[in-house]
Amino acid sequence: MRIAVNASAELLHADIGRLREHAARAAEDGFTGWWLAQTGLVDALTVFPAVAGSAPGIEFGTAVVPTFPRHPTMLAGQALTTQAVLGDRSLVLGIGLSHKPVIEGYLGMSFDRPIRHLIDYLEVLMPLLADGHVDYAGEAFTAHITSARPTDRTPSVMVAALGTQALRVTGRRTDGTILWMVGPRTIEDHIRPRLADAADEVGRPDPRILCSLPICVTDDAAGVREAAAQVFAVYGELPSYRAMLDREGAEHPGEVALIGSEDEVVAQLDDLERAGATDFAALEFGRSEEEFTRTRALLKSLL
To answer: How confident is the model at residue 96 (pLDDT cuts 50, 70, 90)?
Structure first.
């Protein structure tokens, strides 16, 4: 299982210099990837070229760009331009539907028929990324475009898919899924089989399953879990994450976080790998500098 870093907590500071330092340290420490959410007023895809020179060799990935606010033709252009600037560096365009309370409540947009939206989005996005041409008339999106591409390299595409229908669409059309707040039981019993079966039906390679969770090495597991339950409480309320926590038998997000001693956290990582996760993106969490230091030291020891 490849181990990467989820830098999304750094977005709370909205400081590009701080993000550059974070990415540089991740590359220096030997992590395979550096993942960043699209949230707030920092554009994740724009960040990658800004920090790439300080973080050689590392894979960059969005986790994730919400689809509703961006037409797929616009996102294709942005992703291809980012890839062109990055050159031969690996770029993963992670996209997701977001959540009905966010799209309708915060943005005032309709969240009607999200699976139809996802299908049409990918039907426009994927051919533009691959060859710069699309001729598609869908219910949610239509595009008839032929354009020169700024790069011959095609970014990888992954989807934050949790539900059965979304996993089927994702497995048939993309390179895999990006998970948040999903534990090993749910990966093994729900995510992996549905995603893999869908990919196999159309002859696609085995999909990537990138699992991202809070992680903390500590001597006070109970205390850190309680803190995680409070900090990440909103994810226990959003319907799609709540469904995954229910599948896992978890009352709150703190229960799926990787927390404990070095040996206990390693065992939890092993559980994720056995369940089918191909990648783990660590969102380092803690209440003290010591906990952050121990967590990073453990992760480095596993690379």
So the answer is: very high
